[in-house]
């Protein structure tokens, strides 16, 4: 290999240019896209502290490949595990691009996974669709200088769909307003992509809470996987915080909540992002998880259908429970939607081997998916993010102990997406 | 009352660090062996307890009772067949071997248990708490601290009151002469490591019920264990307990100022002690 000056990238460029030539020479371009085998790369945290996010991946990918086969589409999916480690995520993204030579990279779950993968793809001119991370940590976190909004630049190859901090703030405060409290909030923001964005004094919780008349106690950023939360618990007790919020990884929530109980912190409301998304975390708290609240991005009651299989949200969730014997989780919908968009994009792409043409097809997407309508370029976002970010609806929910054991996630707040039916009213913690 | 509570929680946290460190302290005191795989052995024991709990559906405390003799056996074999071969005038071989062992254990655990974070569930005991005056303390942290004291007392009794302890001390002082007196140092060393592994099992029980662990969580625990041993003075078990408490209090005090300072404050306290008392607070005579 040593002496060869003809690199893989040159090869890709020449072949891509060749296929672009074919496409423009009057031959039926879509037919090419239909008959060529499409190779997708998929990165998600399947092991490590974020493993709960990746729980549905095997189910979604197997189902997708079956569906593709039935539809006569030739697809191959290379699945990579980020092991919940940002460095590992960047490494497997490189592998997908260089070794597996995929046509499109899909990535999901938390900025610690989406950002390194999106950044790698952007640098390698590989189209990439990302999801399951609020858009601010995704967009701002990848900028050369996150502190200077004037320097922020849109991306050419990386696209993202999910909700943003403005949505979660609206949902959380919507839930809190349903419960009588002293409006004193304690914030648990760790030192990671999400925590820094949530606690940010410009784009995060502090300015909005102040405007709405809440006072926030933020003891400061802490390391993920901390053994001891007494400092935070003390600060919240001192400030008499009746509302606890934050964005914590699942293992830390268990440590925090147990210590809070041990040390006599008794809030009326606890709305925690990220950790409380999953039934496993809530179940690991025993009965202490009753009425904890969280953001809800997807439930089996969301009124959407898959563009691939035509299944409703309920049908997909039921299929998951039947196949795995596990309760449904929110990432199912988004992982499914990633593949819906991938198929739609590859259908429209003029040349599947050419990054720029696939990226253009992503930008032109207008698709009704299992997580709602997806299209980039919405004017509901600030101008700098309009090109690369598409928003999905967000509601709020509470975990309720079922009589036979286990927990149900009940939607209690839908101010931002009234088409999602409510399942009950917000209740205070006992 | 905030500061009082912070210091109190720090002392309880120190109990956990002292448990991490007691095994290390014991092994170093007797055979001058620095075991870099100590943290990974704690995580390994935690996985063993977790396996027993989920396979037999038993209380984690009973599982630890079953795991302790198993770990004793592992420690004995490890010392007798591997680590004894590395002991000698040169301090480098044991360091290198235990460093390698640490990598082997981590990857072995990763291969068999995946990178998932695990936790040992202690049921209702987890969130149970006791009110002590104005303070409220979790039952589990109190048990952890009590166990740390118990371990130190028991090990001291063993070392200073029994024939085995006499053999420990004799080999520690002079291996050659102890050998002439009919003590087989290799067996004594193996027993000591086995005992250290029993302490490791107790540490693993409390680590696993307090926080989550994964195959790569070991080295982080090793640092705290090391710092506790060094702060307390090499070879002194009570010193190790004191070291753990100093580390725990430094961390909670640091966190009370700002959570960003939590980990750093512990390391700073360690460096300060090294600066003022390079041999630790309670060093054992002259080594």
UniProtKB/TrEMBL annotation, chain B:
Membrane topology category: Multi-pass membrane protein
Any Pfam family: BPD_transp_2
Transmembrane segments: 6-29, 36-55, 61-79, 91-110, 130-159, 188-208, 228-249, 261-278
Keyword Cell membrane: yes
Intracellular or extracellular location(s): Cell membrane
InterPro entries per the UniProt record, alphabetical: ABC_transp_permease, BCAA_transport_permease
UniProt KW keywords: Amino-acid transport, Cell membrane, Membrane, Transmembrane, Transmembrane helix, Transport
Family per similarity comment: Belongs to the binding-protein-dependent transport system permease family. LivHM subfamily.
PANTHER family: AMINO ACID ABC TRANSPORTER PERMEASE PROTEIN (PTHR11795:SF445), BRANCHED-CHAIN AMINO ACID TRANSPORT SYSTEM PERMEASE PROTEIN LIVH (PTHR11795)
Protein name per its UniProtKB record: Branched-chain amino acid ABC transporter permease
Organism: Rhizobium herbae
């Amino acid at each position: 290999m040593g002496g060869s000056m003809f690199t893989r990238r040159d090869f890709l460029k020449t072949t891509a240019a060749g296929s672009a030539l074919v496409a423009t020479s009057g031959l039926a371009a879509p037919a090419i896209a239909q008959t060529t085998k499409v190779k997708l790369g998929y990165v998600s945290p399947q092991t490590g502290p974020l493993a709960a996010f990746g729980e549905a991946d095997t189910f979604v990918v197997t189902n997708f490949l079956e569906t593709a086969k039935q539809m006569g589409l030739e697809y191959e999916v290379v699945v990579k595990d980020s092991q919940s480690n940002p460095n590992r995520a960047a490494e497997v993204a490189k592998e997908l691009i260089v070794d597996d030579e995929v046509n499109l990279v899909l990535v999901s779950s938390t900025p610690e996974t989406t950002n390194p993968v999106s950044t790698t793809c952007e640098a390698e001119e590989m189209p990439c669709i990302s999801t399951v991370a609020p858009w601010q940590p995704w967009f701002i976190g990848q900028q050369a200088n996150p502190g200077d909004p004037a320097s922020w630049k849109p991306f050419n190859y990386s696209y993202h769909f999910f909700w943003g901090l403005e949505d979660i703030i609206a949902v959380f405060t919507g839930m809190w307003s349903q419960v009588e409290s002293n409006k004193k909030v304690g914030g648990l923001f760790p030192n990671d992509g999400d925590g820094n964005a949530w606690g940010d004094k410009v784009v995060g919780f502090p300015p909005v809470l102040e405007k709405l008349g809440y006072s926030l106690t933020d003891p400061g950023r802490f390391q993920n996987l901390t053994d001891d939360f007494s400092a935070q618990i003390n600060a919240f007790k001192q400030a008499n915080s009746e509302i606890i919020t934050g964005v914590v990884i699942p293992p830390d929530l268990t440590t925090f909540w147990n210590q809070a109980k041990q040390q006599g912190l008794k809030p009326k409301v606890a709305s925690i992002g990220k950790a409380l998304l999953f039934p496993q975390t809530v179940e690991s708290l025993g009965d202490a998880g009753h009425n904890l609240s969280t953001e809800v991005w997807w439930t089996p009651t969301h009124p959407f259908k898959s563009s691939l299989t035509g299944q409703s949200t309920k049908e997909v969730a039921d299929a998951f429970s039947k196949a795995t014997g596990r309760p449904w989780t929110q990432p199912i919908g988004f992982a499914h939607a990633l593949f819906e968009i991938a198929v739609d994009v590859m259908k429209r792409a003029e040349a599947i081997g050419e990054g720029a043409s696939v990226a253009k097809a992503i930008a032109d997407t207008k698709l009704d998916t299992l997580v709602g309508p997806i299209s980039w370029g919405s004017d509901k976002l600030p101008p700098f993010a309009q090109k690369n970010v598409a928003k999905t609806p967000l509601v709020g929910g509470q975990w309720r102990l079922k009589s036979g054991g286990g927990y149900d996630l009940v939607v209690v707040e839908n101010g931002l997406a009234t088409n999602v039916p409510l399942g009950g009213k917000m209740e205070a913690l006992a | 009352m905030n500061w009082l509570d912070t210091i109190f929680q720090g002392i309880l946290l120190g109990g956990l660090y002292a448990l991490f460190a007691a095994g290390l302290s014991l092994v170093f005191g007797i055979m001058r062996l620095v075991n870099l795989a100590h943290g990974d052995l704690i995580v390994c024991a935690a996985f063993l307890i977790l396996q027993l709990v989920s396979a037999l559906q038993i209380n984690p405390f009973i599982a630890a009772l079953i795991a302790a003799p198993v770990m004793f056996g592992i420690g004995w074999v490890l010392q007798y067949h591997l680590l004894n071969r590395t002991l000698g005038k040169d301090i480098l071989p044991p360091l290198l071997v235990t460093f390698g062992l640490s990598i082997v254990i981590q990857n072995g655990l990763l291969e068999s248990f995946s990178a998932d974070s695990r936790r040992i569930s202690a049921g209702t005991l987890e969130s149970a708490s006791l009110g002590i005056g104005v303070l409220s303390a979790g039952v589990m942290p109190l048990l952890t601290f009590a166990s740390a004291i118990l371990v130190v007392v028991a090990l001291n009794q063993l070392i200073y009151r029994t024939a085995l302890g006499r053999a420990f001390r004799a080999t520690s002082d002079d291996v050659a002469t102890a050998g002439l007196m009919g003590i087989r140092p290799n067996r004594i060393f193996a027993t000591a490591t086995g005992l250290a592994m029993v302490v490791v099992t107790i540490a693993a029980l409390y680590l696993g019920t307090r926080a989550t662990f994964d195959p790569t969580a070991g080295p982080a625990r090793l640092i705290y264990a090391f710092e506790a041993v060094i702060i307390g003075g090499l070879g002194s078990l009570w010193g190790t307990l004191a070291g753990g408490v100093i580390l725990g209090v430094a961390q909670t005090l640091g966190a009370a100022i700002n959570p960003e300072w939590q980990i750093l404050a512990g390391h700073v306290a360690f460096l300060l002690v090294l600066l003022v008392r390079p041999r630790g607070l309670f060093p054992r005579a002259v080594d």
